[in-house]
Design brief:
It is built from 17 helices and two strands. It is an all-alpha fold.
């Protein structure tokens, strides 16, 4: 440090304490400058690493036709996971301890890492669609999704920011992220469920539109193998614990009797077990979504009206919510952060919004010889005894009874027959 100026090595900053140099520099200001230099260096490092990684795969794909034996000789020039943690190391050098650093990573760095990770993820193709880049793309996807999980779990990611992507992905970069996550690939089978779980646990400002989109994504795109791999790693109580046990049982069944795969008994046993896993997993993830936060009724209604594209989707969601409302008394624990709600209250809120959004379809749905709407009314009446949410339940019951009384005067010209829709959302996926 001299009167002529201050020279700092951004790669090796260190805070200065208990130092007084009269007339030269303010030490607090100097340390603040060092923090800023370190942050800029860390953000620049991962931005540069992201560009190099994307350029490598773009060029490699263009030149892949010239390679023989399905291999590209040039190795990946950079490790995304290593680059991210190197950035963390740069930042940690200006903090008093690594524990303090891990607890309070600068939001600017998290946002930069999140945006760069998604940019890489969206630029990579599914390895199953590649020829001679499979192994390299697979390795890159493992690192990118690993960093994404770590960043989301930091608690600094907001679902209400577009992170510079603007309207490029229709304002829903999180849904684009989920769609870009690979499926059916070794070591990555459960990544979509892991990211969804991390979002619900660590992102506290998920808007109604995204909550509906996440649930629809699970119902439409997440398969049995995804659930089995995810829940086989989980432990917990209630449905989570049951799905975990069934998932392990399913994996043992597949592993023990591959030679019996053609027998009808094996096929039936595997199908029944897969159906139970799918049903319970859908109930479990739906319960986590509807208890994430207290929703604005108008926003949730609009999200359901815009987000649910077919009658079959409405049918599946209504039956799922009906089941959760019936068993809500035993699963009314609050979520882990402030702003969450109970299962019963969440089910009431979502059924009420679904009623306003798709009433015509709901009045047609039957199950077990009766209308689902009648079963919901019965469940809501029994829930009235719970003073915790009696007002919400009473309002919803009054609303359903009112619209049901006038159902014979209503027409549903805009909605096709329930059975005309695709079977993707068949209620066979839910075992009640």
């Amino acid at each position: 440090i001299s009167k002529q100026g201050i020279t700092l090595d951004a790669a090796k900053p260190a805070p200065i304490r208990n130092l007084t140099i009269p007339g030269i520099v303010d030490i607090a200001e100097l340390n603040q400058s060092m923090d800023l230099n370190s942050l800029n260096a860390a953000c620049l490092l991962i931005t540069d690493a992201s560009s190099k990684l994307i350029d490598f795969f773009t060029n490699a794909e263009c030149n892949s036709q010239r390679e023989e034996n399905g291999n590209i000789g040039t190795s990946i020039p950079i490790s995304w996971s290593a680059s991210y943690h190197q950035g963390l190391n740069i930042l940690s050098r200006v903090h008093t301890s690594s524990k303090a650093m891990k607890k309070d990573v600068p939001i600017e760095f998290i946002e930069s890492a999140f945006k760069s990770s998604i940019t890489i993820l969206l630029s990579l193709k599914n390895p199953l669609e590649m020829s001679n880049l499979k192994k390299k793309v697979h390795a890159a996807l493992q690192e990118v999704t690993s960093v994404l999980l770590e960043v989301i779990k930091s608690g600094h990611v907001s679902a209400r920011k577009d992170y510079g992507f603007g309207s490029k992905y229709k304002g829903n970069i999180f849904l684009s992220m989920l769609r870009a996550c690979p499926s059916g690939i070794s070591n990555l089978e459960s990544i979509r469920m892991e990211i969804i779980s991390a979002m619900l646990e660590h992102i506290r400002d998920i808007p109604e539109q995204l909550l509906v989109s996440i649930l629809r994504f699970v119902l439409r795109y997440v398969e049995t193998d995804d659930f089995v791999t995810y829940y086989s790693k989980e432990s917990g109580s209630g449905k989570t614990s049951l799905v975990a046990r069934l998932s392990k049982q399913y994996m043992e069944l597949i592993a023990k009797v591959p030679h019996k795969a053609d027998s009808q008994q094996y096929v039936d046993e595997e199908k029944n077990l897969a159906s139970r896993i799918m049903s319970l997993a859908v109930l479990d993830i739906t319960s986590k979504i509807i208890t994430h936060s207290r929703c604005n009724h108008s926003f949730l209604t609009k999200a359901m009206r815009d987000g649910l594209k077919s009658n079959a989707e409405v049918e599946t969601l209504l039956i799922t919510l009906s089941k959760l409302l019936q068993c809500g008394g035993g699963h009314d624990a609050m979520v882990s952060f402030k702003g969450g709600t109970t299962l019963s209250v969440g089910a009431v809120e979502w059924i009420s919004a679904l009623t306003d959004a798709h009433l015509g379809t709901m009045l047609k749905i039957s199950l077990g010889g009766g209308l689902v709407i009648d079963r919901i009314q019965s469940a809501v009446r029994s829930a009235l005894a719970q003073s915790e949410f009696s007002n919400e339940a009473k309002e919803m019951l009054d609303h359903i009874e009112m619209v049901t009384e006038h159902a014979d005067t209503m027409t549903d010209e805009s909605s096709p027959s329930l059975r005309e829709t695709t079977v993707l959302y068949s209620t066979e996926r839910l075992a009640f």
